[in-house]
Every structure is written in structure tokens, then in C-alpha cells.
Amino acid sequence: MAAPPHSASSRRASGGGGRAGSSGAAGVLQRPSHALPPNVTMAILKHKHGVERVGDLVHAHGGGGGGSSDEASRRESKSGTQETLTALEKILEVETVQLAPSTGGHTQTLDLFTGVTASEGNFTPRVYGGQLIAQALNAASKTLPPGRRCHSCHCYFMSPGDTKERFVFTVERLRDGKSFCQRQVVARQRGAAVFTMMASYQSADSWDAPTALQHQKACPEGVPPPESLPTQREFFDKLLEDDRLSEEIRASVRRKFEALPPFPLDIRFVSKAIDRYFPTSPREPRQLAWVRMPPGDAPVHESVVAYASDWGLLETVALPHGVNLAHRRLRMASLDHAIYFHHPIAADEWLLFEMESTSASGERGLAHGYFYGRDGTLRCSVTQEGLVRVVNKPSTGRRAKL
């Protein structure tokens, strides 16, 4: 989906076996038996940041995404120059609150991180699901032993996020083995779980094993190169110039687009703007787009692919029914999301994102995505199930519940 709201009924996390304080280390977060009670989260945040509630983290760190002045000073002293974070880096960045010591491949305490929910770079006024996945992967990567790469992650969106509150990420180090290690990440706001992810990591040496079996789904052929396709700004300009749009719809699209901050990735759709937003008839449940990777190392690319993989995927479900993002009666929300990384991704690489839907039933749709390098190598695969509803009345702007 282009950037769907994760519309779900809010549920408070219940139960919990965690407690603040551990063997002389005040404020160390114990591994919970079930959910993390709000008072435990508050105890840690008060100890580490001097705040009384999660919302105060935004003020304690200098706003919704800029980070603290102390943190900026540390960056400057380390690099010798003032580092300027890009919009994408700000969105993906998580701040370490607590890193637990590891003994025997696991810990008795949880690693704790916080992440912004600022709308900068977000293509919707609500929390974008790709941001949650990317930040969770970023947090988990900070707890790994050297030489590990993510080969898969499985995520569930449990309730909508609040863009006015920071996320609190807890990372549980389930196992560190010789070849594989696993992490469980839970994102919370006001003590309630809104998102969970299980991720598995493999030794980097295994990725290049000469005896490994290899085959893949064939890369689509005859696709125009990304340089020949319009940018997102040009894409919408072409849409607004189309004579088939009524003045009412044209004005509505212009207002919505100009009110949104830019999406922080260069994504170029192969389909025409008018076909994507205003289909006149049912279409094949398939679409293609190019996505460009930024500079950086493997963990950065894993997070960036995760961020991009939630964009446009679920809307593929609606194409055979002649409806999509412009349909005011269409409701879409991510329910779960899985990513499988097959080959390393290069910095500054253009990836072809092939999206297709194989099923829709029970107000749910299933979509699959495939990221190919320009050389045709299948870099990673994505599967997403989401809520897809066509309601009787057009949207009123209110957040729907599942």
C-alpha cells in the first residue's frame, strides 16, 4: 500500500513478569514473562532519561526526530565534523537506552531502544508500517555478534501507532548460535504493544558458501530502466495534467499531495499515474517499481528494503476489482509482513520491486513482492497480508477499527 494507516483497535498490554532493578544495577529491564507493564517502561525511562511519561521523550531529546544535543555532540567529537542526518536516516534511527550483557548466547535482561514517529519523510499523516519494521531491524542489529546478516523477519501489526509518541523497542536475545541467532522485538507506546517482530540472522560466511544450492524466480523482462521513468514529483504532475480527471478530484489530489512531506526514497513506478490511481476497469494484480538504495552497509540496506517493502504492495490486492488508493470507500491496513533476504544488497543500487496479489477473501488480501538487482539477481522476497475493506460510505477521515 502507498502508506496505509495501520487501523486496528487499541489494546493495552496485559500481564508481565518484568521489574526494574537487577543485582545492584538500578533500572535494568528484566526479561518479561508476557507483556511489559507500563510502570516498568516508565521506571526505565525515568532512570535513563529523567522523564515521567513516554511522550516526554520527544522533549527530552530535542523534538520529534532531531535527537539530543548531547547525542549530536558525541557524533561531532567522534567524527570531527558535524554530521547531518538525512530524512531517511532520521526515520530509521533508534537510540540505545540499555544494552544488556550477554552470557552463553542469551541474556536475562532486555535491550531497550527508542525511535521517533515523526511524520518527516512519511507518506501518510499516520504511522507508516515500513518505518516500524525498519526501526525494529535497526534495533535488533545493534545486539548482534559480528558477521551476522538478517535472512528473515516476521512481523505483526497489532494496533495503530501514535505519531505524537516515540516508540519504545525491547529486544530479546533469544539465541546466539554458531550459524544462526534470533531476536524478538516488541514496539510499545504508553506501555501497550503495537508491533512485534521475530528476526533470524545467519553467519555472513554461509551466504557465499561455494556448495550452496541456488535457483530463483526469473526477473521480469522488458522493464524500462529507472532513469527513463518519472520521479514521484513528476509522477503526480502527470496525474494532475490528465484530462480524464474531474476538477474536483484534481483539486483533492493536489491538496493531499502538497500537504504530505516527501517520501525519503527514490521510487519510480513503471505504470502510468492515471492507471495506478484511477483505474477505469479491473486490472491484473501486478505492478512494478524501481527503488534506489542509499549508501551504507548491510544493516542499513536491510532496514531500507524493509521500509520500502510496505509501499505499494497491499494496494495490488485491489487492482482486479477496479479500485485502489483513490477510491474513497477503500480501507487497507497491514496485518502481518514477512521479508526473506537471499543475497546482499549493494549501496546505491537500483532494485526492481515486482508486486503481485494471489488471493483476496474474508476482507483480507495477500500480496507478494520481489526485489531484483539490475543484474536480475533476486535480492529478497516479501509477503504481506492486510485488511482490505470496501465500506458503504466514503471515508470521513476518522480512524477505523478492525
SSE arrangement:
Blueprint: E1 20-22, E2 25-29, H1 38-49, H2 56-60, H3 69-79, H4 87-92, E3 94-98, E4 111-115, H5 129-141, E5 148-157, E6 167-176, E7 180-189, E8 192-203, H6 204-207, H7 232-241, H8 247-259, E9 267-269, H9 273-277, E10 286-292, H10 298-309, E11 330-341, E12 350-361, E13 364-373, E14 378-390
Antiparallel strand pairs: 1-2, 3-4, 4-6, 5-8, 5-11, 6-7, 7-8, 9-10, 10-12, 11-14, 12-13, 13-14
Describe what is shown at a glance:
The protein is of the alpha+beta class and 402 residues long.
What percent of residues adopt helix (DSSP H or I)?
10-25%
CATH superfamily of the largest domain: Hotdog Thioesterase
**What is the count of structural domains?**
2
Q: Kindly provide the name of the CATH class of the largest domain.
A: Alpha Beta
From the structure above, extract its key features.
402 residues; alpha+beta; Thiol Ester Dehydrase, Chain A; 2 domains; two-stranded antiparallel sheet; 14 strands; globular; disordered N terminus; disordered C terminus
Give a description of the structure.
This protein folds into two domains: 20-150 and 166-207, Hotdog Thioesterase (Thiol Ester Dehydrase, Chain A); 236-390, Hotdog Thioesterase (Thiol Ester Dehydrase, Chain A, Roll). Helix content is 23%, strand content 29%. A hairpin with a 2-residue loop joins strand 12 and strand 13 (364-373). It has ten helices and 14 strands. The two termini are 17 Å apart. Mean pLDDT is 75; it is low at 1-35, 47-85 and 396-402. The radius of gyration is 21 Å and the shape is globular. The chain has 402 residues and is of the alpha+beta class. It has helices at residues 38-49, 56-60, 69-79, 87-92, 129-141, 204-207, 232-241, 247-259, 273-277, 298-309, and strands spanning 20-22, 25-29, 94-98, 111-115, 148-157, 167-176, 180-189, 192-203, 267-269, 286-292, 330-341, 350-361, 364-373, 378-390. A twelve-stranded antiparallel β-sheet has the order 3-4-6-7-8-5-11-14-13-12-10-9, sandwiched between helices. Strands 1-2 form a two-stranded antiparallel sheet.
